[in-house]
Write a structure and sequence with these properties.
seven-stranded parallel β-sheet, SDR_fam, Rossmann fold, 266 residues, globular, Short-chain dehydrogenase reductase 3a-like, alpha/beta, NAD(P)-bd_dom_sf, 9 helices
Length: 266
């Protein structure tokens, strides 16, 4: 049996009923972690718990826009498992991929900011408070995006929200380092998730072809949610013990090599 890299650790993953969060929950539990799956998709969340096994994970409804629910999520986790070592703040939304700055819907903007910025701030705050109180050398991971690297990789409101996530994480790394708590981002390239499909209206194969055309690294097939989960595993584990304040790009070289953004979905 391969070494279980999270043996004895307890993790919260928000947005874990589907997509990247679900894939990461499966990876974390395979590596020995006990996981609380947090989401607002109750039926899907219960299904993930049943699939992984209730001995390895639990589901807790949490709308990250509501700070009280985030605080209750952290309290639930500590009562259930006795500690909190890892917070993967992954829940996020976007406006439609065809949206432009010329037609920003401010009701949509307010909701995107509430989830992607306010929600991340709340998860960092309450996870860090619990870790500091218990003396845990914890790891906080937040999902950002390759859209933070240059204009054109995402619509304006989504991009702005993910830039804010990077700022929050860097500030958290600076402030929490003295407590032994690390904070990092993971930034996915074009990966097929239920959310992505709902926002663009394309088929899975069309999205994979579109995203794959930008990738410099060829031959490995399409980027998958589990690839992002493996990166989160590294950031959650002791293998990244001196990694903090970073934004790990998982994009097949798109941003590092300098590929220009492909034309967005019309």
């Amino acid at each position: 049996m391969s070494k279980q890299r999270l043996e004895g650790k307890v993790a919260i993953i928000t947005g874990a009923a589907s997509g990247i969060g679900e894939a990461t929950a499966r990876i974390f539990t395979t590596h020995g972690a006990l996981v609380v799956i947090a989401d607002i998709q109750d039926e899907l969340g219960a299904g993930v718990v049943a699939s992984i096994g209730p001995g390895k994970c639990k589901y807790k409804r949490c709308d990250v826009r509501n700070e009280k629910e985030v605080e209750e999520l952290v309290d639930f986790t500590i009562k259930a498992y006795g500690r909190l070592d890892i917070m993967f703040s992954n829940a996020g939304i976007s406006e439609k991929l065809t949206s432009t700055i010329l037609d920003v819907d401010f009701a949509v903007l307010d909701n995107v900011i509430a989830v992607n910025v306010r929600g991340v701030a709340a998860t960092i705050k309450h996870a860090a408070r619990a870790m500091v109180a218990s003396g845990t050398r914890g790891s906080i991971i937040c999902t950002a995006s390759i859209a933070v690297t240059k204009g054109g990789f995402g619509p304006a409101v989504y991009t702005a929200s993910k830039l804010a996530v990077v700022g929050l994480v860097r500030s958290a790394a600076a402030e929490l380092g003295r407590h032994g708590i690390r904070a990092n981002c993971v930034s996915p390239g074009g990966v097929v998730t239920p959310l992505a499909l709902s926002l663009c209206g394309w088929s899975q194969s069309q999205v994979e072809e579109f995203a794959g055309a930008m990738m410099v690294l060829k031959g490995g097939g399409p980027l998958k949610a589990s690839d992002i989960g493996e990166a989160a595993l590294f950031l959650a584990s002791d293998e990244s013990a001196f990694v903090t304040g970073q934004n790990l790009m998982v994009d097949g070289g798109v941003t590092a090599v300098g590929s220009r953004p492909a034309s967005r979905v019309e």
